[in-house]
Write a structure and sequence with these properties.
DNA polymerase, domain 1, disordered N terminus, 3 domains, alpha+beta, Gyrase A, domain 2, elongated
């Protein structure tokens, strides 16, 4: 049997073998192709084979289900005890009006108080159409679709007074979640559509970089209800995914030839990561000179360094957190799964 060992392999074959498994340092870039009021299309390229659907599917799920928005959760109408009622002089019955109110797109501004539910009001009289523009919103909240039809008053003597409860949340919250026996008489729950992103679509296409044709191009399309900037929604979605994946970085550091972190980050001096001069000096004297040295340590290992206490540890953890990094986990993490 003729086995070819690495040491006996000719240089030219060795170079070809090296090229076949090395990880290319290709950096994907994002480019906005279309930017309209409630629609945007992006191109992310080049991606390694298989990463188009991985990234696209993850972003789609988070954009549709995890982006925070505002919605009407309860309605109270003067003279109405339940949703199966009608109001004199109003064309729509209460159920129809509630279905229309569900479509109210509510924008949250920086001035909004999101710590508790807020109240909005509709108070109109006389013949005419009631739209989203007639809703008096609380400070910091705006109606993004003022043209929305809510009801039509057909009599000059007709009146419509409504109180809307506005809350923030994510995804879809059906009225089944509420114990109606505990509600005040006349308070009608509404199926709340918090999600500001209405639709997400993505397509993965092959693309070429130089002579290599195995890369992928991800085309991502996003539609919103007009209450959120789509760029901001993508940033929030990416941030949520990063926060969930970041927990795995605490298990250790990658092998030297696997470019999880940029090489310049790993070799960066700990004197440049925001530590006090005293803490940096203690670490340097112990032989921990670079960021790579630091993230390879556990809390126990750092606390064993002379002059390094819990206050210094807290400072190190905060500095690493600002960089999106963590110390290596103790061995106990592995033992729990064995």
């Amino acid at each position: 049997m003729n086995n070819l060992s690495w040491s006996s392999t000719p240089d030219n074959i060795r170079r070809q073998m090296h090229v076949s498994w090395r990880i290319d340092q290709i950096t994907p870039k994002i480019r906005k192709l279309v930017d309209e009021d409630n629609y945007a299309r992006y191109e992310i390229s080049p991606l390694e084979s298989g990463f188009g659907i991985t990234v696209g599917n993850a972003l789609r799920r988070v954009l549709l289900n995890e982006i925070i928005g505002a919605a009407v959760t309860f309605v109270k109408i003067d003279g109405v005890l339940h949703e199966y009622s009608t109001i004199p002089g109003v064309k729509e019955d209460v159920i129809e009006m509630i279905l229309n109110i569900k479509e109210l797109a509510i924008r949250i501004t920086d001035a909004a108080d999101t710590s508790k539910p807020q109240k909005a009001f509709i108070s109109v009289r006389g013949k005419g159409e009631v739209t989203g523009a007639d809703v008096r919103m609380p400070p910091g909240y705006e109606v993004a679709n003022p043209e929305l039809h809510i009801a039509e008053l057909t009599d000059e003597k007709a009146r419509l007074n409504m109180e809307l409860t506005i809350e923030i949340g994510k995804g879809y919250a059906p009225i089944d979640r509420i114990d109606r026996s505990k509600l005040d008489i006349g308070l009608i729950p509404v199926d709340a559509i918090f999600a500001p992103i209405k639709r997400v679509n993505f397509v993965v296409e092959p693309t070429r970089v130089g002579t290599v044709s195995t890369y992928e191009r991800l085309v991502l399309e996003v539609w919103s209800n007009g209450t959120v900037n789509i760029d901001q929604a993508l940033v929030e979605a990416a941030g949520l995914l990063i926060n969930h994946f970041r927990i795995f970085l605490a298990l250790g550091i990658p092998r030297p030839f696997v470019p999880i972190y940029e090489a310049q980050d790993i070799k960066r001096s700990i004197e440049t990561i925001g530590l006090s001069a005293k803490v940096a000096s203690i670490l340097m004297q112990s032989g921990c000179k670079t960021l790579g040295d630091l993230i390879s340590k556990t809390e126990k290992e750092l606390l064993s360094i002379q002059g390094f206490g819990k206050q210094a540890l807290a400072e190190v953890k905060k500095a690493l957190s600002n960089l999106g990094m963590n110390l290596r986990e103790e061995k106990g993490v592995e033992d729990e799964t064995s």
